[in-house]
Automatic annotation (TrEMBL):
It comes from Aspergillus hiratsukae. InterPro entries: Chloroplast_QOR, ER, NAD(P)-bd_dom_sf, Quin_OxRdtase/zeta-crystal_CS, SAM-dependent_MTases_sf. The keyword Hydrolase does not apply. CDD domains: MDR_like_2. It holds the Pfam family ADH_zinc_N_2. This is Enoyl reductase (ER) domain-containing protein. The chain crosses the membrane at residues 210-232. Keywords: Membrane, Transmembrane, Transmembrane helix. GO terms for molecular function: oxidoreductase activity; zinc ion binding. Residues 6-200 form the Enoyl reductase (ER) domain.
Length: 436
């Protein structure tokens, strides 16, 4: 983590207070300056925003729609949502011109940034040489522009450490990805969804994750005689009339324990993603109610109505009886649901129809290993031959992510891996938000 903080924070520090030539942190020269930061919610961008604000400059940041409030919280006076506002058009207005641009993403954003910097201003990119994408119309603006790579400097690291210790700046990790998912990590970075730094985990310290599914199955097996004894003791002979009824009773008893035992592992991701719920909410398969406390008024006052539905064949009729019509739902939430549904395709497609335009689907689901030939992928396929028997039809190898992404048209797909999931995890998760 120190390396993560050191490199990206020093990049911001050197761009602002060494490369720009405006002055050091604390110099009066920064007062009244206007600074534009592209990809302001990213790993370097968030540090540039905080440090420029700390220096006394007026900061403008660009980011995607989901990160607007985040960039504002860092200290930006104005945030440009690139999906709704054109940076080039914004920059062509004289009142919007800036003294300094710090570009953290390059490409189209860097090209448009040329229109935003004033005559005689400064344009710095940490992504590529700015002149590579300089518009012909901007070649006479006398803008000092350059690309730079951060240099090792102990003194700068000490400065950043002091800023963090004093609470003047903060580092934020968006997500941690195992190395085998580096392509997805870079897609998230390029897609503008990142809120802070994206980290690739190169460690092999998750090797014991290979044992987790086996331990879960063993625990489920131990609950078989416990369930049988409990049913006989309570004279619930009806549950012994068929294998299906007994299996449901067995799984219910095991699941009650498993949810309690595993909640600390899942809670950080589940609580974070479900905190986005608002308006009319449909929570699918509330089950034993493990996460219902997140929908209470004390935890979330943005919810106006909450509907709880089971993902059975009658859920569509159940919603209609409750007066819920297609295109009227603000939020749908699924936590460990789609892995166990017998026909997930029709369920997902129908739920999609209930979302209104700009409605959101909050997701926390375990998914198929991305690399079926990896150690985790091979082990996952092997354990899945018996897993559904002990886990009420749950499938480890269902490609739930692909199912969700292709259920309809999404304006935003902000999905990432679950927290602390390494190379050998046979229960990899996706967590995030899909916006219709």
């Amino acid at each position: 983590m120190l390396l993560y903080l050191g490199r990206i924070s020093r990049t911001a520090l050197q761009a602002l207070f060494a490369q720009s030539g405006i002055g050091e942190l604390g110099d009066e020269a920064w007062k009244g300056k206007r600074v534009l930061v592209t990809a302001a919610s990213g790993g370097v961008g968030m540090w540039v925003v905080q440090m420029a604000r700390l220096a006394g400059a007026t900061v403008i940041g660009t980011c995607g729609p989901r990160n607007v409030e985040f960039v504002e919280s860092l200290g930006a006076s104005e945030v440009i949502n690139y999906r709704e506002r054109d940076l080039k058009e914004w920059g062509q207005r004289p009142e919007n011109q800036v003294d300094l641009v710090v570009d953290c993403i390059g490409k189209k954003s860097l090209e448009d940034a040329w229109w935003c910097v004033k005559e005689g201003g400064i344009l710095i990119s940490i992504f590529q040489p700015p002149e590579q994408v300089q518009p012909e119309e901007c070649k006479g603006k006398n803008v000092r522009n350059f690309f730079f790579v951060v240099s090792a400097n102990r003194a700068d690291l000490e400065k950043v450490t002091k800023l963090v210790e004093e609470g003047k700046c903060r580092g934020i990790v968006d997500s941690v990805w195992p190395l085998e998912q580096f392509e997805e990590a870079f897609k998230r970075l390029d897609g503008g969804h990142a809120r802070g730094k994206i980290i690739l985990d190169l460690s092999l310290n998750h090797v014991f994750d290979l044992l987790v599914p086996v331990l879960v199955v063993i625990t489920a097996i131990l609950y078989l005689p416990i369930t049988l004894i409990a049913l006989l003791k309570n004279q619930r002979t009806a549950d012994l009339a068929s294998w299906k009824s007994f299996q449901q009773a067995w799984f219910s008893r095991f699941w009650h324990f498993f949810c309690w035992a595993s909640r600390p592992l899942f809670a950080p991701d589940v609580e974070k993603v479900l905190s986005n719920a608002h308006g009319v909410v449909v929570d699918v398969w509330s089950g034993s109610g493990d996460w219902l406390y997140l929908f209470t008024e004390e935890r979330n006052s943005n919810i106006t109505k909450l509907y709880l539905v089971e993902p059975n064949a009658d859920f569509h009729q159940d919603l209609e009886k409750m007066g819920v019509e297609a295109g009227t739902v603000d939020t749908i939430s699924t936590v460990h649901v789609l892995c166990s549904v017998q026909t997930p395709g029709p369920l997902v497609n129908t739920l999609y129809q209930y979302l209104k335009s700009n409605g959101q689907w909050l997701v926390y689901e375990h998914v198929k290993a991305r690399n079926g030939r990896s150690v985790a992928g091979v082990c996952q396929a092997g354990i899945n031959t018996i897993w559904p028997v002990f886990l009420d039809g749950c499938s480890l190898t269902r490609d739930t992510e692909d199912l969700l992404l292709h259920s309809g048209k999404w304006t935003s797909t902000d999905l990432r891996p679950g927290t602390n999931e390494g190379w050998f995890n046979q229960l990899p998760h996706i967590v995030g938000v899909l916006v219709k």
